[in-house]
Amino acid sequence: MIATVLSRAQYGMDAPQVRVEVHVAPGLPAFSIVGLPEVVVRESKDRVRSALTTCGLEFPAGRITVNLAPADLPKEGGRFDLPVALGVLAATSQLPVAALEGCEFYGELSLNGALRGVQGLLPAVCQAVKVAHSVVLPDINAAEAALVEGAVVGAGRDLLQVIEHLRGDKPLSFAAAQSLQVAEPLYADLADVRGQAQARRALEVAAAGGHGILFVGPPGTGKSMLANRLPGILPPMTRAEAMESAAIASVGMRGFCVEQWGCRPFRAPHHTASAVAMVGGGPHPRPGEISLAHHGVLFLDELPEFSRRVLEVLREPLESGSIAIARAAGRARYPARFQLIAAMNPCPCGYSGDLDGRCNCTPAQIRAYRSRVSGPLLDRIDLHVEVPRLRTAQLVHDEEVEEDSATVRARVRVAREIQLRRACKPNAALSNREIGRWCRMEPAAVALLERSVTVLGLSARAYHRIRRVARTIADLDAKEVIALRHVAEAVQLRRLAP
């Protein structure tokens, strides 16, 4: 007899349907799995056999063939254990075949029949909702599945509980998943940063328009503190943004923690990270740091210490907002609409241009250090801001209370809402044609920008990026037309040559 159980594979952000077909026939005992299974999937036959016998169920003595269709789609992970076990039971008339229709099953089996959680379920549940399928999965994954609006989810703790449901003895409680309510994310507060008025202003502009920013300054001036406080002044995530971010984390190596729902991702890879770790990859491509930072922040501290090859792979995603990973087995595309914030010292020792003159680096050393970051990459970063060392008096005797993140976030949120009403996207994502439409400037502002491009030797890309930044500054000022002062500030925030 043949039985079919529905499940889904995971490749990139896709979750293609997999039909687990089980055929049991008389003959010498054998258990084979076909359909491009990875090692973990092939090993499921031993977990299924032990789980069925431990639970007191009959394991057929004949020849068992499991086909994971389509046959040319690679299958990996332990998510097919539960579908295979149910298929064996249905093929041997221990379960009604009709009970399996219209439902998808996921779960790894332990040897005693308990269900263990699996990764990458969010894309699968999203696809199940689109075809009006219900889902049965381990109870440890129930909270994650509840994030998908409209999902009909049944959670079981072990194989016997699922079997009781399918036999009609003790049905699982199926319910449409509801929006998950979690506490408001807690971020580091911008009020902790003393002084650095220009850097704080640049951070606000970057948050309002989604712009990239580079901080340059000596050690200990607050570059990392400022970077860590950027997520706290960004607008709250929409439900669609939160779902995209959660789905990417779900298929990542560590999976998704529901307590992080709605939190802006903040990824800060060490400078020893490889290109694969940064953009993603592997035999079956996993998301890298740039995708895990989707709708959030990617912070690269000590920028020149990163490998040149690692930095250069950022150039395409910064423009396109996605990354395509091609492998012999297939091609996966991950979204990567992240906000880049980077920090670097002005020279190898870190004190070039410092007030006390302690830098001993030669001009050749400084040039070699700064050349580790290519011009094309720097050209793609909207804001270049100096973060100088504060005087001791500013640290010891400054009693002025700095603005907190909530105050700045309120202004950022208003400016971002203006951008979304106008173009349905933040200013940093405007195309060149949209810049011409939405970034109208006063004649004096046009003249200043033309003069600045000529004097500073800026590229055409830099010209368009300055217009985007000026548009953001005007939005913070609630002005429809970009004025002279808006362009002047935008140029000032980019003229630093690291």
In summary, what is this structure?
The chain has 498 residues and is of the alpha/beta class.
What does this structure look like?
It is a single chain. Helix 2 (44-54) crosses helix 3, helix 7 (197-209) packs parallel to helix 17 (405-423) and helix 7 (197-209) packs across helix 20 (460-476). A hairpin with a 4-residue loop joins strand 13 (280-281) and strand 14. The chain starts with a strand and ends in a 6-residue tail after the last helix. The chain folds into two domains: 2-176, Ribosomal Protein S5, domain 2 (2-Layer Sandwich), CATH 3.30.230.10; 190-200 and 212-404, P-loop containing nucleotide triphosphate hydrolases (Rossmann fold), CATH 3.40.50.300. The protein has 498 residues and is α/β, with parallel strands linked by helices. The strands form six sheets. Strands 12-15-18-11-19 form a five-stranded parallel β-sheet. The protein is built from 21 helices and 19 strands. The chain is 37% helix and 17% strand. It is elongated.
Give the arrangement of secondary structure elements.
Layout: E1 2-8, E2 17-25, E3 30-34, H1 39-42, H2 44-54, E4 63-69, H3 81-91, E5 103-105, E6 108-109, E7 115-116, H4 121-130, E8 134-138, H5 142-145, E9 152-156, H6 159-167, E10 175-176, H7 197-209, E11 213-216, H8 223-228, H9 239-251, E12 266-267, H10 275-279, E13 280-281, E14 286-287, H11 289-292, E15 297-300, H12 308-312, H13 315-320, E16 322-327, E17 330-335, E18 339-344, H14 363-370, H15 375-379, E19 383-386, H16 392-396, H17 405-423, H18 432-438, H19 443-456, H20 460-476, H21 484-492
Parallel strand pairs: 3-4, 5-8, 8-9, 11-18, 11-19, 12-15, 15-18
Antiparallel strand pairs: 1-2, 2-4, 6-7, 9-10, 13-14, 16-17
